[in-house]
Amino acid sequence: TENKMAFKKCLINHGDSNVRYGDGDEEFESAFSDPALHQALNNQINKSAINFFRALALCHTVIPRKLKNGEFEYRSPSPDEEALVQAAVRADAKLLERNNNFVKILIQGKEESYEILKVLEFSSDRKRMSVVVKDLKTSEITLYIKGADDMILTRLRKDKEGSTKTDHDVEQTTKALEDFSSFGLRTLCIASKSVKAEDFKIFSEHLQLAEKKLNEREETVEKVYDLLEQNLNLLGVTAIEDKLQIHVPSTIATLRKAGIKFWMITGDKGQTALKIAISCNLHSTRQELISLEPQKVMSKFKDILENTLKICEKNPETRRTLLVGVYGFRQIFEHENLKKIFLKICVLCECVICCRVTPLQKAQIVHLAKQSGMRTLAIGDGGNDVNMIQEAHVGVGIEGREGQQAARAADYSVGKFFHLERLMLVHGHHSYHRTAFISQYSFYKSLMICFIQLTFATFSLFSGASHFNSLSLMSYNVFYTGLLPCFYVFDKNYEPETLISSPEKYSLTQKHTFLNKKTFFLWFIRAIFQALGIWVIIILSISFEFIGAQEGRPLSDEELSLVTFTALVLIQILTIVLNSNTLTVFNAFILIGTLIVFFLF
């Protein structure tokens, strides 16, 4: 995606009701195009909307910078946070100043200053982040939290009269989350909690003890965090749009024609991931969708996998997409017998969508694919993709707004996703073709001179004498055959336009057309045939007295060696020329230069 987030929709809890904004029969460009939101913000009696955007202005790690024109620029490692802070600004809750200990905001023309007591940072396991602030005017301590729905909704405060009201809020919120996800929007739940000074003091003491632990420090700290992040009051839900990069659908369609299968691994909800998969041509309504719903009973999940495998094997030609959630992967990773069943299902599916997964699970999924014998390429643009990129056979990082972590950890770095098309179809094909030739040629040219030496040994009764002097042997590998294949890196057996317009040619690399047992054997036979040819034609013809020198004597061993070596070098040059598909200036220079150097020295 572009990582340019746009605040599209939201749900705000007004106490007696949960109201959606930017949603409904009328299409709105964003929630701020909805007149009802502006009415809610201007409501001085029920300040739920104001409190919602106050939370967005406070709960983040964004750093503001005031420009010369008086406007503010907001910077954060997370584009999501930038979008939420910008949304708060549009709702008249502007972030003015923030450092490690202090934050100042301007809400409806009134400045509010807070002391930052503690930031409970986001992690892939926690799936949430919190900030504890103290109002410098009223001394009230409040915790603001945002995170995934499964982490926030389970921590809501229960009513004294029972859980009816809370359950109703959760039900409405869950419905809104599903609807927002169906549009491909990324959702977050926002909540808050009033904290007593005594409770925060106790929390701080427990946290200090946890941070001093030498063993299992992170787990203990998270447990202390979890004690504070309970009995929350739901403020609302945000829905952010992250647009796809240009040419993503066409790139995926082209690479699929090349016989490449796609697995989409994301931390988004299942509905969001499915919508994104549809928009980028990974999944279509013509494909059968297999959803592995989470099951709490292990035996049931195993039965689901086995039944799914039977269906796939019964009709293997049916186009299918497999959707797997985080619970399913937990079961799969914990039981070896489920891994085999799962991999068989994946092979029979055209696309696999893995949702709600952590960075560690991303790497585990790639490792699982590698275990099945697949050649994997992982591409990502964020720090949470680093483990996955490093685990794959080939890692590709996209330089984006989320930083350079993915690009630095990868084998290859690209600017946009569509660059992957040329990287694989053109550079990948040419790289394989050139590597296949150079590797086999290196064996061939060494075998050829060895076979000549071996044949000479039979005539010298294996005396240990060498047919070539040490200077010839050294120059053969360094000057006459060492430099020749180097400039083969410019060779192209197909033009780039042909490879892109005919992605099916990528199958030549997948089938190991240019480098396999057969091709290596042919190079081996070529070395033997040419070595024997040189020996029979030159050595047997010249070494006897049928052809003598001008003085009437046979050629000496040194002269015979030079004639043999000359034929050997000329055949090597001819082999390079005949096996080259393109002749560049560099190729011509090295070929002609090799001949000149040989005959001069």
Explain what you see.
The structure is a single chain. The chain is of the alpha/beta class and 601 residues long. The chain contains 22 helices and 18 strands. It has helices spanning 35-41, 48-58, 79-90, 149-152, 164-182, 197-211, 217-228, 248-257, 270-279, 298-314, 326-334, 336-347, 359-371, 386-391, 405-409, 419-459, 470-480, 496-501, 507-510, 517-542, 557-579, 585-600; strands at 5-13, 18-21, 63-66, 72-75, 93-98, 102-107, 110-120, 128-135, 141-147, 186-195, 233-242, 262-265, 288-292, 320-324, 351-354, 377-380, 394-398, 412-414. Strands 2-1-11-10-9-8-7-6-5 form a 9-stranded antiparallel beta sheet, with helices on both faces. A 4-stranded parallel beta sheet has the order 12-15-14-13, sandwiched between helices. A 3-stranded parallel beta sheet has the order 16-17-18. Strand 8 and strand 9 (141-147) form a beta hairpin. The model has no long low-confidence stretch (mean pLDDT 82).
Keywords for this entry:
alpha/beta; 48% helix; four-stranded parallel β-sheet; single chain; 18 strands; elongated; 601 residues; 22 helices
